[in-house]
Amino acid sequence: MDSEQLQRTILFVFFVVLAGLGLKLILRRTGNYDVDFIVKIIGWLLFIPGAWGIIESLHLIEILRKL
After folding, report:
1. What is the mean pLDDT of residues 12-33?
2. Helices 3-27 and 33-57 sit at what angle, rounded to 10 degrees?
3. Average pLDDT rounded to a whole number, residues 49-65
4. Is the dihedral of CA 11, 16, 18, 19 positive or negative?
5. How many angstroms separate the Cα of 25 from the Cα of each of 15, 16, 66?
6. Whole-prediction pTM value?
């Protein structure tokens, strides 16, 4: 495994963790509407870049651009 492949793997794992944490915060409910609102915003702020990074890591955007 060369260094570029290792770097891509580490970035992919980072983005999966980021998206997973964001999704967990989006789906979490405490019963307090104010706290839920803030937690969901933070969750979306983590999930969107994480999902974008996963899509970039899998080269799906390049495939979609060719269509």
Report:
1. 95
2. 160
3. 86
4. positive
5. 15, 14, 34
6. 0.84
Rounded alpha-carbon distances, angstroms, from residue 44 to 7, 16, 25, 36, 38: 25, 14, 8, 12, 10
Q: How far apart are CA 34 and CA 9, in angstroms?
A: 37
Do the beta carbons of residue 52 and residue 18 sit within 8 Å? no
Which whole number is the average pLDDT over 32-55?
95
Contacts of 64 (CB under 8 A, 6+ apart): none
Contact 50, 15 (CB under 8 A): yes
The alpha carbon of 66 is separated from its chain's Cα centroid by a whole number of angstroms, namely 24
Q: How far is CA 65 from the centre of its chain?
A: 21
Q: Using an 8 Å Cβ cutoff, are 6 and 24 in contact?
A: no
Domain ranges of the chain: 3-66
